[in-house]
Amino acid sequence: MLVLAIDTATPAITAGLVELTADAVRPRAARVTENARRHAELLMPGVLAACADAGAKLAEVDAVVTGVGPGPFTGLRVGMVTAAALGDALGVPVHGVGTLDAIAADVAAGEPLVVVTDARRREVYWAAYDGAGTLLDGPHVTAPAALVDRLPELGATAAAGPSAAATGLAVRSTAGPSPVGLVAVAAAALRAGAEPAPLEPLYLRRPDAVPPGQAKKVTTP
Amino acid sequence: MIVLGIETSCDETGVGVVRAEGGATTLLANEVASSVDEHARFGGVVPEVASRAHLQAMVPAVHRALATAGVSGRDVDAVAVTSGPGLTGALLVGVAAAKAYATAWDVPLYGVNHLSAHVAVDTLQHGPLPPCLALLVSGGHSSLLDVPDLAGPVTPLGATIDDAAGEAFDKVARLLGLPFPGGPHIDRVARDGDPAAVAFPRGLTGPRDAAFDFSFSGLKTAVARHVEALARAGAPVPVADVAASFQEAVVDVLTAKAVRAARERGMETLLLGGGVAANSRLRALAQERCDAAGIVLRVPRPGLCTDNGAMVAALGAHLAVAGAPASPLDLPADSQMPVTEVLVRAR
Ligand SMILES: [Zn+2]
């Protein structure tokens, strides 16, 4: 099964093709560009470049997997709407996976792990996993110090993700999710031919907006 | 030729489908999912709320549009999308979706200017458009444009220097205790009011003011002063009279400047567009003044005036038929896209 994987929840714009078989997840091609401000411009060219690298046509894709965050909202939506529209136009299923889960799958640490990415505004997104890669806690958005306070209780001995250094733990990787990691998280559902759940972005924050109070007076009483 | 158009520059997720054949462009579908109710309690459009709604609404809106048009994705010959101007985060959702559909269907992609699309939409209702003067008024823009040809360069003659006309309606509605969006509510209550009850100022109409620019901020402040003075005196606010007088001040300036611009530019046609063009008093006064000046007035029906995907599809179809080059796949969302740029071209 040929799977297109997309993620735009970190500064990396990730597009890749992955061959999923009954017992393996094999990379065919990956295009990763670091540019936090140009997700929408660079993603589709990246998808086509990955197809060219793999010698495959977009129309040959059997399924799409997309990271659903958490991640800075504007970039996150670009990957998700691209995946949703491609799946719709190609008539193939689209599976959403947690971006942090995909990073954890890439590391396959064999040890308790926290995955940490940049949430901007001096906060981080994070989630904790056991040695088998099972999600224990998260994803959350907090100040780095609040995560550090939780580390003893979480039992993590290593960290991964672009903001892993904030933990003070041994850093296993600072990369965003790879196409293989993204597809690995959805592998069981893809192999089972399961109906994907509706795509739900993990924003973890409410929109910045407050209802207006009393109108400001323009005349001084 | 079947063209699908996507519009997400503000709070409407619009998807339209048109057919261009033998010089005529026909509307097949115009699906609009609006997040306006989610913005009401904030008294204005909240960009992040709008962008979240676009992501949820995008693919279902494409489905509905294709179903209504009675075509399948494989029948689509081109995809057009609003590249700007508008809210960046909102534009990005439509631009990304349009790229994906165009690529998967293997058809050309046209990234177009939102303002030109407001002009092009009239061809769906009234047929080919002669050279015209366009007055585009909405919550996001208030512009006077010289449009010799839909596919060619547009000359901006004037624009608001502060609030957009629709914004002024929203703010004054709030002062009068009317709900958001203010335009339709002010239009409704003004019908029972006296437009000459209060002599509100006409912005930028002095002899030394820019002839074709607009200003609505001073008018809004004048309404606030008036309402506050009544409140201080313990007098009730005559909402209908204030609404009618405010509305008259806005449409008086808009139509006077538009007709004067049409005359100066030698244009025989004036086109109204944008959400505020749905205002009944604006339509009536524009008609009156155009008749007096011997100018043909064209106003699309209200559903085509507000932001929608059909207008983007209409412009895309016009550009495709005119042989314009497709936009590159790395086309950006450009919140400040200049009105002189009708189509995003390869750099
Ligand atoms: Zn508009």
TrEMBL record, chain A:
Pfam families: TsaD. Keywords: Acyltransferase, Transferase. GO terms for molecular function: tRNA N(6)-L-threonylcarbamoyladenine synthase activity. It is an enzyme of class 2 (transferase). Coiled coil: none annotated. Its EC number is 2.3.1.234. Residues 35-147 form the Gcp-like domain. It comes from the Bacteria. The keyword tRNA processing does not apply. This is tRNA (Adenosine(37)-N6)-threonylcarbamoyltransferase complex dimerization subunit type 1 TsaB. The lineage of its organism: Bacteria, Bacillati, Actinomycetota, Actinomycetes, Pseudonocardiales. The gene is tsaB.
Automatic annotation (TrEMBL), chain B:
GO terms for molecular function: tRNA N(6)-L-threonylcarbamoyladenine synthase activity. This is tRNA N6-adenosine threonylcarbamoyltransferase. NCBIfam families: gcp_kae1, T6A_TsaD_YgjD. It is found in: Cytoplasm. Belongs to the KAE1 / TsaD family. PANTHER family: TRNA N6-ADENOSINE THREONYLCARBAMOYLTRANSFERASE (PTHR11735), TRNA N6-ADENOSINE THREONYLCARBAMOYLTRANSFERASE, MITOCHONDRIAL (PTHR11735:SF6). Keywords: Acyltransferase, Cytoplasm, Iron, Metal-binding, Transferase, tRNA processing.
